[in-house]
Amino acid sequence: MFGLDKKDTTLLIVVTALVVLAPFILNPFPADSALAQFNAGYPDLMQRFVIFGIFAIGFNLLFGLTGYLSFGHAAFLGVGSYAAVWMFKLLSYNVVPAIVLAVIVAGLFSVLIGYVSLRRSGIYFSILTLAFAQMSYNLAYSVLTPITNGETGLQVYSNDPQILKGDGPDVTHLFGLEMGSAYTLDIGPWSFVFSAGYYFCAIFMLVAFYLAIRIFRSPFGLMLRAVKSNQQRMAYTGLNTRPYTLAAFVISGMYAGLAGGLMAAMDPLAGAERMQWTASGEVVLMTILGGAGTLIGPVLGAGFIKYFENIFSKINDSVLHQWFSFMPDGMEDFMVFIVHPFIGKGWHLTLGILFMLVVIFLPGGLVEGGQRIAAWLRGRGKKPAGGSGDPEHHPKPAPHVAE
Amino acid sequence: MDAILLQILNGLDKGSAYAMIALGLTLIFGTLGVVNFAHGALFMIGAFCAVTLNRILNLSYTVVDETQKDFLGNPLKVDVPYVKGIFGDAFGNAIIDWSVPLAILFSIPIMLAVGYAMERGLIKHFYKRPHADQILVTFGLAIVMQEIVKYFFGANPIPTPAPDALKGSIDFGVLVGLDVNAVVYPAWRFVYFCFAALVIGGVFAFLQFTTFGMVVRAGMADRETVGLLGINIDRRFTIMFGIAAAVAGLAGVMYAPINSPNYHMGMDFLVLSFVVVVVGGMGSLPGAVAAGFLLGILESFASMNEVKALLPGIDQIIIYLVAIIILLTRPRGLMGRKGVMED
């Protein structure tokens, strides 16, 4: 179907089903139960899942396929956001022109940066992209204030021209369908929210995912993998790899621009902090945590990080006391004391530890973890086919970074 | 003339910090071949060593002073630091006043231990892994260290004063024959620069003039051969990791009075230090030091009003701009060795 083989079609269908049914899946607990804070089915968080999913899919097209580790991808996301908000300011709150312009501007910006940065590889490429992104960030904060509105962040004011607005709504909308509108379905004690904005982003994410599959399976994708495994040999065969890597860089920059545009479409403001290197680091974390070079990995990683960011940071001491209330008093206080540093404001600590554990024990990320569990369930002690018994015919896998 | 001298001096203190962190990074990279993203966190831990010692010295007990009365006429309760109780008033005060320089002694064993534990506990298992994995795991470690410090010390910057004697400024212009008050420079920053020069010189002398240093240099050039000669090079490299951590820590200790330590100060320095290392040339120790001072001084020149009027915003981007130009024109950085991390 859609030019995919059977396995990929299944994957696409599963992902589609998960995304469409997300409001149900992410809300497994009744609304007023003690476990309701584990529910992630509210529009704001679900939108972030899919938006960062798009961002990570795009990043993975560059890093997973070519092995070029960019540390400045957030710059494209930030540029996309600024472009989208400018469209809101100049035309109207309709999201279509905003997103189109966000993708185009991010694409042009990434042509510029990619053309220069891709002259080097390895850690030099990482530092070059980092330097460009930090320059954009610093400039957005200082000299470019007329365009970016500096520290306040770019937002829409009532005296902006908005020439196409007419009597359209005062919030972001798709030809009249407001992004903030939502329909709440109550079944017994459960309550499910279906948000227009979420499904709007979800459609983009599914398209982005489909395109990523096509790129992974195309001759172009194969060429990128060849660049990752041995760029020198590609050069010796007389092939100029630069256009291929540049194309991958630009595609991945456009994905980031799309994510930035969607972010602005959900909430019409844009700030420079979206371009900071920590934001670029976050998408690297997402991709690695999920599994670089795999199709579903980045999406999983994005969901994982955003989920824990929201859920862990919401748990506080009184919630902990509730959980451990079955224990004797002294024990309860002790448990709360032990867990306290890892929750609430300390969720970064949890994330850091989780992340280290994944890098140490599961270099392939969550996807590899899933595969190992699946293999263990299937095999139960049987040796996996094509084990490492024969080094001659199973050479060591290519490193993540072009070296 | 005096304006130029002042900008050079202004650049020196930041440049010293860059140079010391970049030196440590290069030591680790040159010996173990590991890209250590947790190095900024080591700098931060050094700064917090100064904070901790300051707090320890200020631990107090309360005594009731019969000679003084509060506004209700009751005897006044006075907090007396233990140090004063033990050493007497004058010497106790001096110790508290000089807590930051004393923290140098306090931090060296701590940083050596932290570095040793880090290398043996974590980094050792990452020698054979790709650079990306090393970057990622040390990045995770940096987050963990930051969050632990944040848990104990809070998120706000903690002012840590320099000794009273070094708080003022020195009239540098008089020393070089310029007018009085032409070049006034904070004393502590000058101390910082001298200290950095001492540390950097010490590291180079250690590598150059001791047998241990000779073996380490040999190991950097050809690890395998040194190993074949029956020398346990791994152990020495571990010690070098500890020394690199101590250099970063010392940079942090002395930086505490310049910039009140907070938990993410390391990250702010880390990115710039990596730029410094790459500009200097991966694996080149003199390159790292030279690039550190160079970029620090360039940064302070770019923040002059005259330059800013000519090129608005240049002060924000100068370091990155220089890095991009150097990376594109000189592939190995300023003094990079052939064959280290080349394309």
Automatic annotation (TrEMBL), chain A:
Q: Where in the cell is it found?
A: Cell membrane
Q: Where does the secretion signal sit in this chain? A: none
Membrane-spanning regions, if any? 49-69, 98-116, 123-144, 196-216, 243-263, 283-305, 349-367
Q: Which InterPro entries match?
A: ABC_transp_permease, LivM-like
Q: Which organism is it from?
A: Jhaorihella thermophila
**Looking at the record's lineage, which domain of life comes first?**
Bacteria
Keyword check for Metal-binding: no
Protein keywords: Cell membrane, Membrane, Transmembrane, Transmembrane helix
Q: Name one GO molecular function term.
A: branched-chain amino acid transmembrane transporter activity
GO CC, sorted alphabetically, is: plasma membrane
Quick one: where's region Disordered? 382-403
Entry-linked Pfam families: BPD_transp_2
Its main subcellular localisation, reduced to a broad class, is membrane
Protein name stated in the entry: ABC-type branched-chain amino acid transport system, permease component
Membrane topology annotation = Multi-pass membrane protein
From TrEMBL, chain B:
Q: Which residues cross the membrane?
A: 15-35, 42-64, 95-114, 190-216, 237-258, 270-297, 309-328
Signal sequence extent: none
Chief localisation class: membrane
GO cellular component terms attached to this protein's record: plasma membrane
Q: How does it sit in the membrane?
A: Multi-pass membrane protein
Q: Name one Pfam family in it.
A: BPD_transp_2
Q: Where in the cell is it found?
A: Cell membrane
Gene Ontology MF terms in the entry: transmembrane transporter activity
Q: Which UniProt keywords apply?
A: Amino-acid transport, Cell membrane, Membrane, Transmembrane, Transmembrane helix, Transport
> What biological processes does GO assign it?
amino acid transport
Q: Which PANTHER family match?
A: ABC TRANSPORTER ATP-BINDING PROTEIN (PTHR11795:SF442), BRANCHED-CHAIN AMINO ACID TRANSPORT SYSTEM PERMEASE PROTEIN LIVH (PTHR11795)
Q: Which family does it belong to?
A: Belongs to the binding-protein-dependent transport system permease family. LivHM subfamily.
Q: What is this protein called?
A: Branched-chain amino acid ABC-type transport system, permease component
Q: Which organism is it from?
A: Jhaorihella thermophila
List the taxonomic lineage.
Bacteria, Pseudomonadati, Pseudomonadota, Alphaproteobacteria, Rhodobacterales
